[in-house]
């Protein structure tokens, strides 16, 4: 290592400005990459999953399983990369979750699955589609629509205004609406009048659907102009539906109002949302597309919510109930706190160890830390991952600056006995230290490589951690090679490098040696005895400390799940949910409570 250090010293002597410019440029590029990347709260640990949702209205779970679920499972069983398939059949609903391996792209898996659905031969009336391309961690924003109008009108505003606006945001894959009755237009038929006119329900339904169309009639040429012709048949109001002709008897048309009436109704309720004191609220759940940037997507969502609150009818507003950015900011704050606290601790230790007179070498070691951290973030981003609390929180500053501290200590100790400083002495001293230190760092990097071979959930959690540690160690070695020779040229020769910390350490070592000699006279085999005692103490400490690896991801929210008998009516579950909300609201620390009973309609 002496020859490379000599070359580096010559470059510093002749092209110091060029070297500084190169180092600053590389650091700026690393910083730009880190600034553009997202710091996730936790890694995306789920497999690529595709969920098939099929609706078979009015059918029992047994029929749904036999005619829908089994057929879809049969045609999707041979999909490329499929490793697992799970299904649930409920009343009128079939849900199949397909799990794929790590080598399968989400988009390709969805395309293959969509093609197989058309081959299943499902019965008439089955509506089968894929769940939005969002992971279980894709729920980034929740809101409740509040207003002094009826819940079904709030639901219409949610379906036709809010949902369409939010789904147009880049990065958003779907908006799940929960709560609020869905308004319908019902035709209520009088059976006696229908029987007298010799009509049946199937004929009436067919006529109503055929009449609800606009038809084109070509055009008519008149002079130098042409007029387009079309027939208007779409119903634009309940009154228009009442006047719709469904049959004729004796040349006289029969309309809907002749055999019944048109009224506003609602779909059967399958679930209901409550918000604080409101028992029937409308909730929206924003789902982010897999792989998108959470913070940037959330910023777009918040901008859209502000615009909507200004354009919605008077008295109607969107109230936020959950925001993923709160958790991300807390996690980023935790990482930043650990970095700042670690750097402050290292600065204090270095000042005590090297002394104030050797401030130049202390600055060199300190500069290595941000360079190594930027290298870690750069390595993770270029490997296709996003930095997260687990990977960045596992960076060990001691490993990063180990080589730099050994080189700095050797340089300070060597210059203490020199009358004059010269580049030849610095290159010789650092060359003798950097070789063994870099070999130790290489062994450490090799020890981290098995982490990169982990697959599936373990790989998605720990592979970014391994890449972070390897990149940080490499950045620390490069920083030591760059900064220690440069700042070592500013050290003053002949200075006594022993500080008060060195003197205290020397005194402590002498006292320990004295105790050791005393034990040799009193205790047989003192080294073995001390070793066994230390092992026993270490084992006791190991049993007393926590074994958790994941950090505390506390969002400040509590999710309470209540189980009820499967035969419970919706009205009773809504009553229980209202009682739970009321009791929780009595707690002073609780700001708001949202309850969900059942499932979306």
Detailed description of the structure:
The relative contact order is 0.12. α1 (2-14) packs across α16 (423-448) and α2 (16-36) packs across α12 (359-382). By secondary structure, the chain is α+β, with helices and mostly antiparallel strands. The strands form 5 sheets. Strands 5, 6, 13, 14, 15 and 16 form a 6-stranded antiparallel beta sheet that branches. Strands 2-3-1-4 form a 4-stranded antiparallel beta sheet. It has helices at 2-14, 16-36, 61-76, 106-117, 151-167, 191-196, 201-211, 238-242, 256-259, 294-311, 324-354, 359-382, 389-393, 397-400, 402-415, 423-448, 456-488, 500-522, 526-544, 570-585; strands at residues 48-55, 82-90, 93-100, 127-130, 139-146, 172-178, 183-189, 215-222, 225-231, 245-249, 252-255, 260-266, 271-275, 278-288, 317-323, 594-598. The mean pLDDT is 79. Helices cover 53% and strands 18% of the residues. It is built from 20 helices and 16 strands.
Please state the overall shape, judged from the principal axes of the Cα atoms: elongated
Tally the helices: 20
Please mark out the parts with pLDDT under 50 across 5 or more consecutive residues, or reply none: none
Q: What is the total tally of β strands? A: 16
What would the average pLDDT be, to the nearest integer?
A: 79
Considering DSSP H and I runs of 4 or more, what fraction of the residues is helical? 40-55%
The rounded distance between the terminal residues' Cα atoms is: 71 Å
Integer-rounded radius of gyration: 36 Å
Helix and strand composition category: alpha+beta
* Proportion of residues in extended strands: 15-25%
**What characterizes the major β-sheet?**
6 strands, antiparallel
């Amino acid at each position: 290592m002496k020859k490379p250090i000599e070359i580096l010293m010559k470059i510093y002597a002749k092209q110091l400005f060029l070297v500084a410019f190169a180092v600053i440029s590389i650091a700026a590029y690393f910083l730009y990459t880190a600034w553009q990347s997202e710091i996730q709260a936790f890694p995306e640990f789920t497999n690529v999953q595709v969920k098939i949702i099929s609706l078979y209205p009015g059918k029992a779970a047994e029929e749904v399983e036999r005619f829908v679920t089994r057929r879809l499972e049969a045609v999707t069983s041979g999909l490329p990369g499929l490793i697992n398939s799970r299904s649930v059949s409920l009343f009128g609903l079939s849900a199949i979750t397909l799990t794929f391996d790590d080598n399968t792209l989400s988009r390709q898996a969805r395309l293959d699955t969509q093609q197989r659905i058309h081959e299943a031969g499902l019965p008439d009336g089955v509506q089968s589609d894929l769940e939005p391309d969002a992971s279980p961690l894709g729920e980034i924003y929740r809101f409740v629509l509040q207003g002094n109008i009826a819940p079904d009108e709030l639901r219409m505003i949610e379906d036709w205004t809010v949902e369409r606006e939010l789904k147009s945001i880049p990065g958003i894959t779907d908006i799940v609406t929960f709560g609020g009755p869905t308004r319908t237009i019902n035709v209520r038929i009088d059976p006696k009048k229908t029987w007298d006119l010799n009509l049946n329900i199937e004929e009436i339904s067919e006529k109503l659907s055929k009449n609800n169309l606009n038809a084109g009639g070509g055009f008519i040429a008149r002079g130098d102009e042409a007029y387009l012709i079309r027939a208007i048949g779409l119903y634009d109001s309940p009154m228009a539906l009442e006047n719709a002709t469904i049959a004729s008897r004796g040349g006289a048309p029969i309309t809907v109002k002749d055999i019944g009436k048109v009224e506003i109704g609602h779909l059967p309720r399958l679930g209901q949302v409550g918000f604080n004191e409101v028992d029937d609220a409308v909730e929206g759940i924003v789902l982010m597309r897999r792989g998108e940037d959470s913070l940037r997507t959330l910023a777009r969502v918040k901008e859209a919510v502000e615009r909507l609150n200004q354009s919605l009818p008077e008295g109607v507003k969107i109230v936020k109930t959950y925001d993923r950015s709160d958790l991300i900011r807390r996690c980023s704050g935790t990482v930043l706190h650990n970095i700042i606290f670690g750097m402050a601790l290292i600065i204090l230790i270095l000042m005590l160890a090297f002394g104030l007179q050797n401030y130049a070498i202390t600055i060199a070691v300190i500069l290595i830390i941000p360079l190594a951290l930027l290298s870690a973030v750069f390595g993770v981003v270029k490997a296709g991952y996003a930095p997260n609390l687990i990977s960045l929180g596992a960076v060990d500053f001691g490993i990063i600056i180990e080589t730099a501290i050994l080189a700095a200590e050797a340089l300070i100790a060597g210059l203490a006995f020199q009358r004059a400083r010269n580049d030849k002495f610095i290159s010789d001293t650092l060359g003798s230290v950097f070789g063994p230190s870099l070999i130790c760092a290489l062994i450490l990097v090799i020890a981290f490589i098995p982490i990169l071979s982990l697959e599936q959930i373990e790989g998605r959690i720990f592979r970014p951690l391994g890449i972070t540690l390897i990149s940080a160690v490499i950045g620390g070695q490069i920083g030591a090679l760059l900064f220690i020779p440069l700042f070592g040229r500013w050290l003053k020769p002949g200075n006594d490098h022993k500080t008060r910390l060195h003197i205290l350490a020397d005194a402590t070592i002498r006292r320990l040696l004295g105790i050791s000699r005393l034990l040799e006279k009193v205790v047989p085999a003192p080294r073995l005895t001390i070793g066994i005692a230390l092992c026993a103490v270490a084992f006791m400490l190991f049993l007393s400390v926590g074994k958790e690896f994941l950090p505390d991801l506390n969002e400040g929210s509590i999710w309470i799940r209540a189980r009820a008998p499967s035969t419970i009516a919706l009205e009773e579950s809504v009553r229980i949910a209202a009682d739970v909300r009321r009791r929780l609201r009595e707690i002073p620390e609780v700001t708001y409570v949202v309850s969900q009973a059942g499932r979306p309609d």
